[in-house]
Amino acid sequence: MEFLVVGLNHRTAPVEVRERLSLNKEQLPEALSAMNSHGASGVILSTCNRSEFYTLELPEEAASAEAGADRVKQFLVERFGISLLDVDRYLYVYRGYDCIHHLFRVASSLDSMILGEEQIIGQVRDAYEAATTAGTAQGPLAQLFQQALRVGRRVRRETGISRNALSVSRACVEMAKSVLGDLSSSRVLVVGAGEAGELAAEVLSLSGVTDITVTNRTFQRAEELAASLSAQAITFDGMPKALRESDIVIGCTGSPGYVLEAGLIGDTMAVRPERPLLLIDIAVPRDIDPEAAQVQNVFLNDVDDLESASQASRDKKVKEAEWAEELATDEAQQFRQWCLDLEALPTVIELRDRADQVRSLELHKTVRKLNGKLDAEALESLDAMTRAIVNKLLHDPTMFLKERKGPEELQIARDIFHLSEEGPKSPD
Description:
54% of the residues lie in helices and 12% in strands. The protein has 16 helices and ten strands. The chain has helices at 15-18, 28-37, 67-80, 84-87, 96-107, 119-134, 140-158, 168-180, 195-206, 219-229, 239-245, 262-270, 307-316, 318-370, 376-402, 407-416, and strands spanning 2-9, 42-47, 50-57, 92-95, 187-191, 211-215, 232-234, 248-251, 277-281, 298-302. It has a six-stranded parallel beta sheet, sandwiched between helices. Strands 2-3-1-4 form a four-stranded antiparallel beta sheet, sandwiched between helices. It is elongated and about 110 Å long.
C-alpha cells in the first residue's frame, strides 16, 4: 500500500475556496465515515489554512496514477456538494515519500502560514485522535501520524523555530497594531470564545487593551473567558450595540455561515459614519460577509491578509527553518525506508526460507549417498559450508529488495524464485 494525501492550503487556494472544504470537530466523525464509505479510510486534517485528506492507495491501484486520488475527490464532491471543476485546480496530490514528507513538514509548522506556530501540532493530534476514535486510522496510517507527531515535537525541541512564534490569533493583533498603532485606548469586540478567540483576547490584554468585549453562542463560555481577562461578556443578541461602540472586531467562531452580515455592518456605520471600524476575520469558514468591505470607513481583513506577518516571521528565522527542514527531510527518508523494509520483509523471509529448504534437501541427499562415511564433525562442517554459500548468494538479492524497491520489484522477485508456491518436497 502507498500513502496518499489530497488537499489544499493557503498557498494553493484562497479562503473563499478553502472554506468550502472546511470541517469543524463536530463534523469530523460523519465526514470520516463518509470518506470510509468511498473506500478511502483515513484521516482528515482541517484547519483555517488547510483541508487535507489522508488515506492508503491500494496495490491494485498502482497501475492507475489517479485511482486513489479519484476516490477521495469523489468523496469531496458528494460530501461538500461542490463541482470538481471548481476546486480541482487548487488541489494537490502527494504519494509515498512526498506524502510522508509533506505531513512531517505540516506537523513541524514548516508548511504553516506563520512559521513556527504552535497550534498545528495539536491540530494534527486532534485529527489523528478523531480518526482513531472513528476506526479509520489503523496500521500504516496510524504509524505515519504517530511518527509525524514525534517529528513535530523533535523539530520544536531541537530548533528555535517556535521561539517567540506567532499564532494566527497573535498575528491578527499585530495586524491591528500595524493599522492603528497603540491599541491601549481601542475598544475591541471578540466574536467567538473558542481557542482562537481565547488566544486573541489574551494577546489583546497583554498588548494593553483594557476594553475587551467577548461574545459567543454559548454565553457561559463567553462569561468564563471574560472573567479570566477582566473583560465584558455579552450575548449574541447584544452584538449590534457592541458593534456601534467598537473600534476593532475580531471574528473567530466555528460557525458554518456569516455571523456578521454586511447589512448589520452597514447599519452600524450609519450611526457612526466618521468613526473607522477595523474588522479582522480569522475564521474559516469566514464569520464576516466580505461585502462589508464596501461599507464606507470599514476596513476588512481576512486570514489570508496575515501573509505579511508570516513573511516577517520567516525572515527572522531563516537558519532555524533550514535546520528544521533538514530534520523533517531526514525523518521522512528514514520513515520511508522503514516502510519499504517492512514491505520487503515478507518476501525476504520467504526467499531465505525457500533457499534453506533447497539447501537442506540437497544436503540430506548428499549425506544419504555417502552412507555414513562422514563423522559428526565433518557433517557439521558441511552444514555450515552450505549455510554460508546460501547466505553469500542471497546477500545481494536481499539488499536489492530492501533498497527502496516498490511492489513491481518485489513481485518480480517472487516470480523469479517461485515464491508462495509449494516448496521442495522432503526426501523419502
